[in-house]
Amino acid sequence: MIEVKGVTKRFGPKVAVDNLSFEVKNGEVLGFLGPNGAGKTTMMRIITCYMPATEGSVTVAGHDTLTESFEVRRHIGYLPESAPLYLDMDITDYLSFVAQVRGIAPSERHEKIRRIAEICGLQNVMGQDIGTLSKGFKQRVGLAQALIHDPDLLILDEPTTGLDPAQIIEMRELIKRIGREKTVILCSHILPEVSATCDRILIINEGKKVASGTPDELATATEGSVTIQAKIYGPEAQVREKIEGMEHVIGCRVVESPPGGPVTFVLKAKPNGDLGREVFKMVVENGFSLSELKAERISLEDVFLQLTTKERSAE
Amino acid sequence: MRNIAAVLQKELRSYFNSPIAYIVIVLFVGFSSWLFFRSFFMANQASMRLYFTMLPWLFMIFAPLITMRLWAEEKKLNTLELLMTMPLKDWEAVLGKFFASLFLLVVMLLLSLPLALSVSALGNMDWGPVIGGYLGAFLMGAAYLSIGLFVSSLTQNQIVAAIIGFFLCFVMWIVGENIVVFMAPASLAGVLEFLGLGAHFESIGRGVIDSRDLIYYLTVIGFFLFLNVKGVESRKWA
Ligand SMILES: Nc1ncnc2c1ncn2[C@@H]1O[C@H](COP(=O)(O)OP(=O)(O)OP(=O)(O)O)[C@@H](O)[C@H]1O
Ligand SMILES: [Mg+2]
């Protein structure tokens, strides 16, 4: 659907996007992640033909953003950062303007607007001036204008900033629902948002790609190991010795050792093999007993921080 | 065509949904009628000549007030990003906005028709120069609007757009005035006289409609609308 090849964007001496290449497949929901100033918005502006790249090329649905920008724009629904809207228009007028430019026939406009208002939960505010809406409703109007022409590709730049928790959840549900049928790029610097909604995550920092993969892949790849917490009944020293003797284990640490209760171990191992199964086998073979076995995921927050700060300290 | 109409409609909705359009129209009609009648009773002539000599100066102020928000506000609110990422050509947006401002101008001119009617009721008026005057005023107003619209595309501050727009209209008007033409080197004099908005306005105002004057106005309008397209594109030049 989208092919980004070696895109660099400079603003004077400032490099906002630095030789970035990636692809988004049809139907995929891509989380585009990076700290403030990483170049997310700039990259989206290049894809949506708002501004050209200094170097490199972008194609959307096979059309080049420079030479066939008109075609590209027809495929895209775009909600820019902080949902810029005409504050002195009412929602219905605004949406019918968008519908008109999007080439929706006059006879269908009314029905399309009604349907999109329903999807975005705008039915009760339709006649209101956009300027008088709350932030969350403005965001919904922004989403409605991006969806009204049923685009193949939806680009959302931080769609949940400024929303209250209930609205954030609602917005995420909506994005998930839309993501089932459409290709979506979701820009954000909030990890839970991206991991909750996206098939694949691309992390950039200072304009460069630092990682990409599914949320699971990212969590494993960056840590380079898996971690398990096991509560085992048995003499602490003996159990520990057995654990350290296991094949892939690289570390073992006792977290808790209550008298008469199970000892809590945290094991770190190389990612090959099924650690949980091996721990279970070890316990059975040695006549200990197992109280609890829990795989500990390192959180994506850790991954994100690790990746984006590693880059910085390397400079 | 469809896109031009869409932008035109959107701008008109914005104009009439906010107080700007009404304020500009009411102020213009009030100002121009007062100035007109004041001098009309002094001159004691059944003619609109005074009205049409005054119009260029009024339009110089009112045209930039009409156009100042058209691009500056899109830039300020960043709605430009949404507008320009829709399937819409830059020149279509420029024309849509230009026609919206022209609509306001026409409303303003139509609202001055009662002036002409009351003058003709008071005495025997020659309608030839009046019709010429209206045509000239329309063309000159359109030229001012194209200048104001262009300036609006260069800034996100409406006040700056209005002031610079006014200044540029003023310059375009006076370059053809006698004082400027006399002071300029002889080789430039003819060019300046041709470039100035004033001389063409006066010749149309006499009721003589010369195709050269029409072409002149259309060229000025076309030129500034072209610059306007470039101004909108300037976001891409970073
Ligand atoms: N028009 C511009 N002129 C100059 N510099 C710019 C321009 N647009 C963006 N930049 C710079 O490019 C860098 C990337 O900005 P961008 O807005 O793409 O970041 P972002 O990842 O969207 O950040 P955020 O999470 O804060 O929205 C920033 O350092 C910014 O200052
Ligand atoms: Mg951003």
Give your account of this protein's structure.
- The complex is a heterodimer of chains A (315) and B (238).
- Chain A is of the alpha/beta class.
- Chain A is built from 11 helices and 14 strands.
- Chain A is elongated and about 80 Å long.
- In chain A, helix 6 (165-179) links the parallel strand 7 (153-157) and strand 8.
- Chain A folds into 2 domains: 2-213, P-loop containing nucleotide triphosphate hydrolases (Rossmann fold, 3-Layer(aba) Sandwich); 224-297, 2-Layer Sandwich (Alpha-Beta Plaits).
- In chain A, helix 8 (215-223) packs across helix 11 (300-314).
- In chain A, 38% of the residues are buried.
- The two termini of chain A are 34 Å apart.
- In chain A, strands 6-7-8-3-9-10 form a 6-stranded mixed beta sheet, with helices on both faces. A 4-stranded antiparallel beta sheet of chain A has the order 2-1-4-5, with helices on one face.
- Chain A has helices at 40-47, 69-75, 91-101, 106-119, 135-147, 165-179, 191-197, 215-223, 236-245, 275-285, 300-314; strands at residues 2-11, 14-24, 29-33, 55-60, 63-64, 76-79, 153-157, 183-188, 200-205, 208-213, 226-233, 249-256, 263-269, 289-296.
- The model of chain A is unreliable at 311-315 (pLDDT under 50).
- Chain B is mainly α.
- Chain B has one domain (2-236).
- Chain B is 83% helix and 0% strand.
- Chain B has helices at 2-17, 20-43, 49-77, 79-84, 90-110, 113-122, 127-152, 158-174, 178-183, 186-195, 197-205, 211-233.
- Chain B is globular.
- Chain B starts with a helix and ends in a 5-residue tail after the last helix.
- The A-B interface holds A 10-12, 45, 48-52, 70, 73-74, 76, 78, 80, 82, 84-90, 93, 97-98, 100-103, 129, 145 and B 2-3, 5-7, 9-10, 13-14, 17-18, 77-79, 81-82, 84-89, 235-236, 238.
- The complex binds adenosine-5'-triphosphate and magnesium ion.
- Adenosine-5'-triphosphate (ATP) binds at residues 11, 14, 16, 34, 36-42, 81, 189 of chain A.
